[in-house]
Structures are given as structure tokens and as C-alpha cells.
Amino acid sequence: MKSNNRKRNKAINGVIALGLVFALTLLSACGSNNSNNKASSASPSKEASPSAVAASPSAAVSPSVAVNKTIRIGYQKYASINILKEKGGLEEKLKEVGYKVEWTQFPGGPQLLEAVNVGSIDIGNVGEAPPIFAQAAGTPLVYVGHSPASPKAEAILVPENSPIKTGADLKGKKVALNKGSNVHYLLVKYLEKVGLKYSDINVVFLPPADARAAFESGNVDAWVIWEPFYSAAQLATKARVLADGEGLVDNYEFYLTTRKFAENDKAAIDVLFEQLKESDQWAKDNLNDVAKLLAPALNLDVPSLEQALSHRNFGIEPITDDIIAAQQKIADAFFELKLIPTAIDINDAILK
Description:
Layout: H1 2-42, H2 50-55, H3 57-60, E1 69-76, H4 79-87, H5 90-95, E2 99-106, H6 109-117, E3 123-126, H7 129-136, E4 141-146, E5 154-158, E6 174-177, H8 183-194, E7 202-205, H9 208-217, E8 222-226, H10 229-237, E9 240-244, E10 254-258, H11 259-264, H12 266-285, H13 287-298, H14 302-310, H15 321-336
Parallel strand pairs: 1-2, 1-3, 6-7, 6-8
Antiparallel strand pairs: 3-10, 4-10, 5-8, 5-9
């Protein structure tokens, strides 16, 4: 009997020992997994090596692991980039190629391109004139795309009861505009059309907010402005449109970056343009929804934005020889008027 008890106790002790070994092994494995999880969550931006991605299928479908770059986008009130920003979706697409996004708003194109010049942003959208002034000042920018022409999206406004009835009446008058902006060329072409010289008027350089205040207070006689400031001021003050860009200018919206970013971060630019195309197509078919989307972000009313949107065209197009020639024509006109200090060649700002 004692022999049987000893055998039974020995068997029980063996089972207990095996159980302890199994439990310790399980705990060790769990601890190892937890350690790995903590390491992964503590370094979400660390880029996985190609071999690690190849060995682990889950790594290939977890783009957040490789997000260690940033694309810094400059934008203005209105235009395609602003629509894309408010609509959303770009951030997730950029994660797939390893980028996150930083957004910065600017009052106008000249200010945006100055930020490109000092390295504060990587890419942004501006009108026709700002890149010409920037290139003349030595900014290392390149054109990477443009929107279709939208000549009706900028105009020369005069107060409702202004004695100015024709272009000739601008002689000797104060005309406000944002220096170096796309409307600068509209003013040049309009004066040329009505037979006035640039020196026949008094140009007052003011950013949009200050220009509107001066316009409403009567401190300037006319205001050359782009959308949506144009529609907002016209509808609110019943200002008259002396002329818009139709038959005078193309009014392209350009996308510009530095040569270094264009060459080293093409993947991010490609994703941005793909998303802009999708967003623009949606905007083109849903102007009222776009106006409602932008209204709170821009602090503008829906009717003003609906009118502004109706004045522009949508889409993203490549830089062609015709576009380069059109920009060169503007640059030559500005140099002739001594608005820029030196002649420039637009081809110097084109990716080869």
C-alpha cells in the first residue's frame, strides 16, 4: 500500500512540475509579445527596413509604420487646395507613401512664396504674377502644375456711387491691390486696353483685408482683387465691376515648390495632385456643397462663395510650352514696367 501511495504522489508531483514549466513558458511568451508591442507603439514613425516588410505581410499594409516625412502645404482662402483641405482624405493617402501633412494659411501668393523661399513650407498655390516676382528675387522655385484659366475670377471694383464709369476715368485715381499678386497683371492689361499708362494712376499696395477697409472708407478709388474677396465685397457693398479678366488675362492658378522637393519628394506631390483632381471633380459637380463646406473655414457667407466658385474652373494640368510662353509674356511686361529688377527666363523654373 505504501509503495502504491509513493508511486501516486510521484506521478502527481510530475504533473505539477510539467504544469509549472508550461505556465512559465506561456508567461515568457506573453511578456515577449507585450515588449514588442510597446516598442512598436513607442516608435510609430520609425521606418521599417525592406527585409522586415518582406518578412511580415502585416508590415506592408501598415503604412503608419513608415510615416517619417512631412509635406508642408501653403494655401490661401479659397482655391483647390483649400477645398481639398476642408474635404479631407489627403492625410490618409499620404500615409501610404510615408508622409504626414502640415497646413499653413497665407493672405496672398507673394507671402506664400516668401515662405517657400525661407523654407517654411514645401508647396503651395498662387496666381500668375507671384512666381514671377519671386523668381526675380531669387527664390529657388519650380512650377509643377496649374489649374485651367479662370479670367472671371478676378476683377477691378469701384464703389456703387463712384464717378468712375470707364477705364479712362481711372487717370489720377488711387487703385489698391496686393503687390505682386495675380491681379497686378490684370491692372496692367486693363490700362493698356483703355489707353492709360501705368504711371497715369496711383497704385496703393495693400493686402486684401486692408484694401477692403480702404475701399469701403473711400481712401482708394478702385480695388483690383481676386475671388472670393471679389464676390464678398461686391455683394456686401454693391460695388460695381469695372472689368474682370475676360479677354485680358488667363488667370491661371499655379502649384509651386522648390526644385529639391520636386526631385526628392515626387511621391508626395503625385498623391497631392491625385487627390486634388478627385476633389476638384467633386467640387465642380457640387458648388453649393463646396460653398457650405468652405463658409465656416473662410468666415464668408455661402452666397458670396457660390458666386466666387461659379467664376472659376477646376482641374490640374501639366506645365506645357504654351503655359511657359504665357508666363514669359507677363515677366517681360513686368520688367519693361520696372516692376521687377531684372529680366528672367521662366524656363529656369521648369523641371527638365
